[in-house]
């Protein structure tokens, strides 16, 4: 996971998304422990409160949970929950905009399908 201090997104959001990416890639399987707040703050040279804020977002959304005295763990079902959430974000951020532009260009459904298929061939 990389933290980009020049990114417009807040660091705590980058922490949360980085953990999500690691969960989706299998680096942090369900029921496995994630790094501690201290590990994040030391490794990325950030304020512990910033790391805590990112992880708290994941706790609030049910992606990770705290085991008292042991640390933070990936919730059972987190992968499916993340996939569903990311699919909705993908639709909202990419597909909606693409379809709006397609309408402005008067593209047909078939035109769009051909373009998408062309992208998979490369």
From TrEMBL:
Transport listed as a keyword: no
InterPro entries referenced in this protein's UniProt entry, alphabetically: Tscrpt_reg_HTH_GntR (IPR000524), WH-like_DNA-bd_sf (IPR036388), WH_DNA-bd_sf (IPR036390)
Domain of life the protein comes from: Bacteria
Keywords: DNA-binding, Transcription, Transcription regulation
Domain HTH gntR-type positions: 9-77
Span of the signal peptide: none
Entry GO MF terms: DNA binding; DNA-binding transcription factor activity
Statement: the UniProt record of this protein carries the keyword Membrane: no
PANTHER family with a match to the protein in the record: GNTR-FAMILY TRANSCRIPTIONAL REGULATOR, HTH-TYPE TRANSCRIPTIONAL REPRESSOR YTRA
Protein name (database record): GntR family transcriptional regulator
Organism: Mobilitalea sibirica
């Amino acid at each position: 996971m990389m933290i980009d201090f020049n990114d417009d997104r807040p660091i705590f959001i980058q922490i949360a998304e980085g953990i999500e990416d690691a969960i989706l890639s299998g680096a942090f399987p369900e029921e496995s422990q994630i790094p501690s707040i201290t590990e994040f703050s030391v490794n990325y040279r950030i304020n512990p409160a910033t790391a805590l804020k990112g992880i708290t977002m994941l706790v609030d959304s049910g992606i990770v949970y705290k085991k008292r005295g042991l640390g933070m763990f990936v919730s059972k079902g987190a992968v499916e929950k993340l996939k569903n959430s990311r699919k909705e974000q993908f639709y909202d951020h990419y597909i909606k905009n693409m379809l709006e532009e397609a309408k402005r260009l008067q593209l047909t459904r078939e035109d769009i399908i051909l373009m998408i298929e062309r992208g998979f061939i490369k």
